[in-house]
Design goal:
single chain; alpha+beta; Jelly Rolls; Rossmann fold; 2 domains; 21% helix; globular
């Protein structure tokens, strides 16, 4: 199966910076086309001409495709001079039945003349791919549509979607999401907010009471049950590190408000399983306590959370991810306990990460059990080879995964950005 690429509003084929050929406008029902001035500047893309034409006021897009799983990518940029800010153009659309309500290009991209890609994993079961558009404020508009067979893309585990900014798939199949939209970690006054609290639990593993931070989403209620993401810190941190450096609560509040992430609970425990679990003195000497945390997580932390909060106690609704030392823990513990976790992520994973063949000794079993395996690391990080080597092993053994690289180092920007991307895939 070949990738389908449609340049909406165009009258001639377009060859992008990777050598891919985009067909001119076709497949739409209703609406009209327009072309912007050729010197119009579009940020966050290497393929500016792709965003200078658009189809607007359309009712639908359809295309005959073989049955199977695909990655659908919808390309947008707000270039109409009559749009002065967020809220001036709002519309809804469904992609193979997956609904996107109150979509605002300006809001999603972080401003005008900025390339933005909405990425949606889909399945075709009746030989036809379909998008339906509904006008609300101003007309719906789109610049391009790309439909990639999932055998061609790394992101092929589970039914999920993420909003990706700029150019997002290299010829090697490596996802490079770029930077999240401006303001993704800014507290917004016009949305509901979740809560972060510090709780204590009895750890039989360590033999003491221990602390962890817990985020509950906006409108948390015992009348419904929630999935849970367990989020692990690095060797120099503790249970507060994620909240201090990356504000997961703000990221989730904003994503949930716009329907881009499922309401979920986030648990931030202390991954240093020893009585004095503070990040003091020679933190590298505490490495054995990070390995011992596996038992604390499985036997003490998860039972404590499931006893205290209204959660779905099932592997399909448990995710495990972490940064640096916590990334290594997440890969070791998550892939080693796929009967407990179906969603696993490692951000800038540290040298505690097991060898690829130890992490995934049975690729066929991993493919069957994993809903998502997400790897990320900045190419300026001295630990880059750890994540890259795992990616190459997974690719060689055809284990579906996301491998997101960036120009960052071993830093909080890298971790916050990847948390933003990762959570949009979870529990969908």
């Amino acid at each position: 199966m070949k990738t389908l690429r449609i340049n909406a509003g165009a009258y001639e084929p377009f060859t992008d910076s990777n050598g891919n050929v985009w067909m001119p406008d076709q497949g739409f029902a209703g609406g009209a086309t327009i072309e912007r001035e050729p010197d119009t500047i579009i940020r966050e893309t290497r393929d500016r001409p792709l965003f200078l034409t658009e189809r607007y006021a359309m009712d639908s897009f359809t295309w005959k495709l073989p049955n199977g799983k695909y990655i659908a990518k919808l390309y947008f940029a707000e270039t109409f001079e009559g749009i002065y800010g967020p809220g001036n153009r709002v519309f809804s659309f469904t992609v193979q039945g997956q609904e996107f309500k109150n979509f605002d290009i300006w809001e999603a991209a972080g401003g005008p003349y900025i390339a933005y890609i909405e990425t949606v994993p889909v399945e075709v079961t009746d030989g036809q791919f379909r998008i339906d558009f509904v006008s609300q404020i101003e007309n719906p508009a789109i610049n391009a549509i790309e439909i990639i067979p999932q055998t061609s893309a790394q992101a092929s585990a589970g039914d999920r979607r993420a909003s990706l900014h700029g150019d997002s798939l290299t010829p090697d199949g490596i996802f490079t999401f770029g930077e999240p939209p401006a303001g993704f970690r800014t507290v917004r006054d016009n949305i509901a907010r979740g809560q972060v609290e510090t709780i204590e639990y009895d750890s039989e593993t360590v033999g003491t009471r221990r602390r962890m931070l817990v985020y509950t989403p906006p409108g948390y209620s015992t009348e419904r049950k929630y999935p849970v993401l367990y989020l692990l810190h690095g060797i120099g941190g503790d249970e507060t590190e994620w909240q201090r450096f990356c504000t997961p609560n703000v990221i989730l509040d904003n994503l949930i408000a716009y329907g881009k992430a499922e309401p979920m609970i986030i648990v931030m425990p202390n991954g240093r399983a020893q009585k004095n679990d503070r990040a003091e003195g020679n933190v590298f000497a505490t490495a054995p306590a990070f390995a011992a945390f596996e038992n604390d997580l499985l036997k003490d932390v998860i039972p404590a959370i499931e006893a205290r909060y209204s959660v779905i106690a099932d592997r399909q609704y448990r995710a495990l991810a972490g940064l640096s030392m916590g990334g290594g823990q997440s890969l070791n513990f998550g892939l080693g306990n796929l009967d407990v976790f179906a969603w696993v992520g490692g951000f800038s994973s540290a040298p505690n990460t097991k060898a690829p063949v130890e992490l995934v000794p049975d690729p066929a079993k991993a493919k069957e059990q994993l809903r998502l395996l997400y790897l990320s690391c900045g190419d300026q990080d001295g630990l880059f080879r750890i994540s890259r080597n795992l990616h190459e092993y997974l690719k060689e053994n055809q284990v579906p995964h996301i491998w997101n690289t960036s120009g960052h180092g071993h830093d909080a920007t890298e971790w916050g950005n990847n948390l933003y991307f990762f959570v949009q895939y979870l529990f969908r």
